[in-house]
Specification:
single chain, about 375 residues, alpha+beta, Butyryl-Coa Dehydrogenase, subunit A, domain 1, Butyryl-CoA Dehydrogenase, subunit A, domain 2, Butyryl-CoA Dehydrogenase, subunit A, domain 3, 3 domains, three-stranded mixed beta sheet, about 40% helix
């Protein structure tokens, strides 16, 4: 079990208050309504830098906090509660981790202090399709450096980046290359995702970088950085789930039906208790993947997702608020939300959801199996 230190508890408490004040859910709605904007609030990014969050994984020698992956996960979890959008994951987590582990002395001296101060956005360009897979982008030796050719998809905050860490193949091995975002031959096509985030398709057509642009290490370094990103994203998903459950629990206590608060109905009480206990178990499972020193074991995510976590159903609404209420699962699955109308109560929804996900009876507590029969 991961036990938070006093400093980590203070970080979590301060992050919760600061995010609620500076990036409430209303700010997310405003950003989502502007499809041509940056996709994040520069004011909130500056505030994050003032609080030291942008340097949470930057070594102290370069002006950062060096608070470890646990600290980054705590910040991400509190930001996710309000759906706060910022370049935190792309720059402060992925790129800062890559540079701190594999960057040269010159690269670190140039970029890490700027990341810690919130003055630079560095995107992490890895994937080349809708799913994480093999790297097809090539890096070819030239007389004075490297030539990069390829296309990167879904580059988070790539449209606003000052520089990019680009994964490319140098023959049989993979490596990361640091390239300025305004390099000749590099073009960016921005798009907005369904959750309001802005990403870019980055085309590399003969982009020339110097001999010192390559970071040390290879595929193992990339995998370690991606593991850190997965752990932080998992913490953020825990924050989303916890906030969704908290809002649902408040609604259960406030909504009245048939002259009674609906939270007094046994079926809804059972479902609420089951979701709470299941969420606590799986949230602790994610935290246990991080060692006490804040580092992620290299084999922590060798299998991309645990089946039971991937299919964790979380009702975000209960009957009565809008008559027929659409519900969706908080899920790792990229597609197949299995959305439907919530008719007949949460118990029957739970039974139908278990049948659709194909995990009826697997990993369920006695409470969950009982409530699904009500």
């Amino acid at each position: 079990m991961l036990i938070l230190s006093e400093d980590q508890k203070l970080l979590m408490a301060s992050a919760r208050g600061a995010v609620a004040e500076k990036a409430p859910i209303a700010e997310f709605r405003n950003l989502r309504a502007d499809p041509n904007g940056l996709g994040f609030s520069p004011a909130f990014w500056r505030a994050s830098a003032e609080l030291g969050w942008t340097g949470v994984l930057v070594p102290e020698a370069f002006g950062g906090l060096d608070f470890g992956v646990v600290g980054a996960g705590l910040i991400a979890r509190e930001m996710a509660r309000e759906l706060a959008l910022s370049p935190f994951r792309s720059t402060s987590v992925l790129s800062a981790s890559a540079l701190a582990r594999a960057g040269s002395r010159e690269q670190n001296a140039d970029w890490l202090p700027r990341i810690a101060r919130g003055e630079a956005i560095v995107a992490f360009a890895l994937d080349e399709g809708s799913r994480h897979g093999a790297i097809a982008t090539t890096a070819t030796r030239t007389g004075g450096g490297w030539r990069l050719d390829g296309v990167k998809q879904f580059v988070l905050d790539g449209h606003a980046a000052d520089a990019m860490l680009i994964a490319a193949k140098t023959g049989d091995e993979a490596a990361l290359f640091l390239a300025p975002a305004d390099a000749a031959g590099l073009s960016r096509d921005a798009r907005t995702l369904v959750d309001g985030r802005r990403v870019a398709t980055v085309t590399l057509d003969g982009v020339l970088v110097g001999a010192g642009a390559r970071l040390e290490g290879g595929a193992a370094t990339i995998e370690e950085v991606v593991d850190i990103g997965r752990a932080v994203i998992s913490a953020a998903l825990c924050g989303v789930a916890e906030e969704a459950f908290a809002r649902t629990a408040r609604y259960l206590k406030e909504r009245r039906q048939f002259d009674r608060r609906i939270g007094s109905f046994q079926a809804l009480q059972h479902r609420a208790a089951c979701v709470r206990t299941r969420g606590d178990r799986q949230g602790q499972g994610k935290r246990d993947r991080v060692r006490g020193d804040g580092r992620v074991p290299t084999d922590a995510w060798r299998h991309r997702h645990d089946r039971r976590i991937r299919h964790w159903p979380l009702p975000q609404a209960v009957p009565g608020r809008f008559g027929a209420v659409r519900r969706r699962r908080v899920s790792y699955r990229p597609r197949g939300d299995d959305a439907g109308l919530l008719r007949g109560g949460a118990a029957r929804m739970s039974a139908r959801q278990s049948r659709n996900s194909g995990i009826k009876g697997r990993g369920q507590t006695k409470c969950e199996r009982t409530s699904s029969k009500l």
